[in-house]
Design brief:
about 775 residues; alpha+beta; Jelly Rolls; 4 domains; 7-stranded mixed sheet; 10 helices; 36 strands; elongated; transmembrane helix; membrane; TMM8B protein
């Protein structure tokens, strides 16, 4: 055949340590039909400060692959919620081969067509809280690339039509495909009139959706005469691929015929007619491929004028043959993103007769519905059983309904199909099923009532069970409970939802309490973070006593909003919010930085003409508000204004030292008992905040931060002016000229400029 190669790539993304599915990076690909091989090239490289991160440590990267929907992963081995089905996926771990770069390759032979999803993450870290911008962070970037090789012009087999084929000596196999429409109960592939070698040394392989593999359904035509391979309950609305392959060592040309028979569920005794209906009547795609010179036949037989739209039939395998049961559709009602309810006509109560199953179909839209959770709930009305020991079984299968006719064993699996089993009876009248990230398409639910006897389950007589059926799509499982938050995430144009747990809870639905915080621990952490702000009461008292009223107001503002911000910021259930979280956080950050600003400006003891009208206080408030609005967690946006205030203080102190030719402040007691201890306490607080704080020790390390910062303010705040003499204001001379006021105690660094008017000696 003719091969075509397609290439797809995605933008590199920064990987994060795994905490929940909300912290992974998800990549979406689409594999076309008739693909024979798909190769993913997984490129990973390190960066640090805009350059290659050769000094960054090697951290393993785990990549997950799944077809049809995102992978449901559990790298921390947590417990899933009850009644949750976990679909499988393939995982691959990448190791580093170069100091700053590594490449992995993942091959898939004959992959399923459609959507494929890759999920990647780093291992879970220790949860250190780092200050943004303090140092260059190591970044691990991941970029997947996809190369697919697909066949074009694959020969198409039409039901009831015989295709002649001659396999040359240099050819090893011949590939065909046949489209299986809805309501088909059986696919029969047969190889006829095999000539050119003794015993027909051919392998016959059949597979749905993609070309066959070595482990696909296989038949050796040399050992089976006639060479017929049947597929019971095939997938509806999909291509089936037929591969005829020569045995190794067979030489010469082999000729044979291939034919396909499709059994219609509504007419189990007849195969589909040999004529070719139109594409619309067979629900067949318009792009077929080559048919080997097949000529269109007659049109479908005319329908009766009284023929009306009837329910869809489904196949049921039993000892008496194949029969069909109607499929009841559901009404889709979209409420919000991943919030869809499927209503049953004349429901939600469903009657399950004893002689036949009740079958329903739930249609999930491609791509749009695969990022949520499919929920199914069955509740049995016990009063409808009339005292009989009745059990209602439900089978949920993807793309084809499945109802077994064997009464002794109830299962939802065959050789090629696997479904989910639910059951309700008088003892357990409620059954639930949750499927996170379900595959899109049609899901069929088959309900059947059986009576339990000594010999197993048998059909009931004259007992019609009544079941309440509820099916809906939700973003997360139970909205992640009280210890989680359901987040709506996006990768390019694909939306999906995931839980982000808190207070030590883990799991897909935040239901794993192995490491959960107790209520007492949550209450203790909240009280420590809130009550540690009471340490600001002594600085407020000192500021009021020293006539620093503006500074005292800032400290009260900081104490108030820091207390209620931490009361609202708790991860557990001990939470109290008086305002919106964002408002409380902004006020807490602004109050903390303003406390540093006004304290440093007060220590500078600027001249009255500079400090008049609180110019610097207003300037600081505006600069800090701007910095917090730009980046609330940025280091330099927050550190810049503080360094600016320290620069003002250093200039003021240096000017006084030069003018007086003596160190300022002049007394050693001020340095030994106030400035040095206050600076050491503040430095210790900054070191704890920047290098020691983690998620586990946050509640007590941050409480110590509150205590140290408030304590340092009490040491660093300048004292109140202590005048040695009190001179009344001298009478001011009238007339022209200027007045020069000299504050002797201000020059010595002993008083506050606010009382300069009391102890000034003015001369004209």
């Amino acid at each position: 055949g003719l091969f075509v190669t397609d290439y797809f790539t995605r933008t590199p993304r920064k990987l994060s340590p795994f905490r929940s599915f909300a912290s992974i990076e998800l990549f979406h690909f689409h594999i076309p039909e008739d693909t024979v091989i798909a190769v993913w090239n997984l490129i990973t490289f390190k960066e640090q400060g805009g350059t290659f991160g050769d000094q960054c440590p090697d951290r393993s990267i785990t990549v997950y692959f799944r077809s049809g929907a995102p992978s449901v992963i559990n790298p921390l081995h947590t417990h899933f919620p009850r009644d949750t089905a976990v679909p499988g996926s393939f995982a691959l771990t990448l190791t580093w081969t170069l100091p700053n770069r590594t490449t992995g390759v993942f091959n898939v032979t004959s992959p399923l067509p459609g959507d494929w999803f890759l999920a990647a993450h780093l291992p879970k870290d220790e949860g250190k809280i780092s200050v943004k911008g303090l140092y260059e962070e190591c970044q691990y970037l991941f970029q997947p690339q996809l190369i697919v090789q697909r066949l074009v012009n694959i020969a198409v087999l039409y039901p009831g039509h015989v295709t002649e084929q001659s396999m040359a000596p240099h050819n090893r196999s011949c590939l065909y495909k046949v489209f299986v429409p809805s309501y088909t109960s059986r696919v029969l592939v047969e190889v006829l009139r095999c000539r050119g070698a003794e015993g027909c040394p051919l392998w016959l392989r059949v597979r749905a959706k993609a070309p066959p593999l070595h482990n696909s359904t296989t038949l050796d035509c040399r050992e089976h005469i006639p060479c017929q391979l049947a597929q019971e309950l095939p997938f509806w609305q999909h291509w089936y691929y037929v591969l005829v392959e020569k045995h190794p060592g067979v030489l010469g040309t082999i000729s044979f015929q291939v034919t396909v028979q499709l059994t219609d569920c509504s007419r189990p005794s007849l195969a589909r007619p040999p004529f070719l209906p139109s594409s619309a009547s067979m629900n067949m795609p318009h792009s077929f491929g080559s048919a080997g010179g097949l000529v269109l036949g007659d049109s479908p037989p005319p329908t009766s004028p009284n023929d009306t739209k009837h329910s869809v039939p489904i196949p049921v395998t039993s000892h008496a043959g194949e029969r069909c049961w109607p499929v009841r559709p559901t009404l889709r009602n979209e409420l919000d993103t991943f919030s869809v309810h499927f209503y049953i006509f004349f429901g939600p109560n469903v009657s399950v007769p004893p002689d036949r199953p009740a079958v329903f179909v739930i249609n999930l839209l491609p791509v749009l519905d695969s990022g949520g959770v499919l929920n199914l709930e069955l509740r049995l009305n016990v009063s409808s059983l009339c005292g009989e020991n009745v059990t209602v079984f439900g089978c949920l299968n993807h793309e084809v309904p499945l109802t077994s006719g064997d009464n002794t064993s109830v299962t939802c699996e065959t050789e090629s199909l696997a479904g989910f089993l639910l059951s309700v009876n008088a003892t357990a009248s409620l059954s639930r099923l949750r499927i996170p990230y379900p595959q899109t398409g049609s899901w069929y639910l088959s309900l059947r009532s059986l009576c339990a006897t000594e010999h197993g389950f048998e059909p009931c007589t004259n007992v019609t069970a009544e079941v309440y059926l509820r099916a809906y799509l939700s973003p997360c499982i139970n909205d992640c409970g009280i210890y989680g938050q359901c987040k709506l995430l996006r990768t390019n144009n694909y939306l999906y939802a995931a839980c982000e747990c808190k207070a030590g809870w883990n799991g897909w639905g935040c239901t794993d309490n192995a490491e959960a915080f107790s209520y007492g621990f949550q209450l203790l952490s909240t009280l420590l973070l809130c009550l540690s702000n009471v340490m600001f009461v002594p600085p407020v008292a000192i500021a009021v006593r020293s006539h620093y009223l503006l500074e005292a107001a800032v400290y009260i503002f900081t104490m108030f909003f820091s207390t209620f911000y931490h009361a609202c910021d708790q991860p557990g259930i001990v939470v109290f919010c008086i305002m919106e979280y964002d408002v409380l956080q902004f006020c807490d950050f602004l109050g903390s930085l303003m406390s540093v600003w006004v304290t440093v400006i007060a220590m500078a003891r600027l001249q009255p003409i500079v400090k008049q009208a609180s110019v610097l206080y207003l300037l600081g408030a505006m600069l800090l508000s701007m910095a917090l609005q730009m980046d609330r967690h940025g280091l330099w946006n927050l550190l810049g204004p503080s360094l600016f205030a320290l620069g003002i203080m250093a200039v003021a102190w240096t000017a006084r030292t030069i003018r007086r030719r003596h160190c300022y402040p002049p007394t050693w007691k001020r340095w030994a008992f106030y400035l040095c201890p206050g600076a050491l306490i503040a430095a210790a607080a900054v070191l704890l905040y920047a290098f020691v704080e983690t998620e586990e020790n946050y509640f007590y390390i941050h409480s110590i931060w509150h205590l140290l910062i408030a304590g340092s303010v009490g040491f660093l705040l300048p004292p109140r002016a202590k005048s040695s003499r009190r001179l009344g204001p001298l009478p001011r001379r009238k007339g022209c000229g200027y007045q020069l006021c000299i504050n002797e105690q201000e020059e010595l660094g002993l008083v506050d400029p606010a009382v300069a008017s009391i102890n000034s000696i003015c001369t004209s």
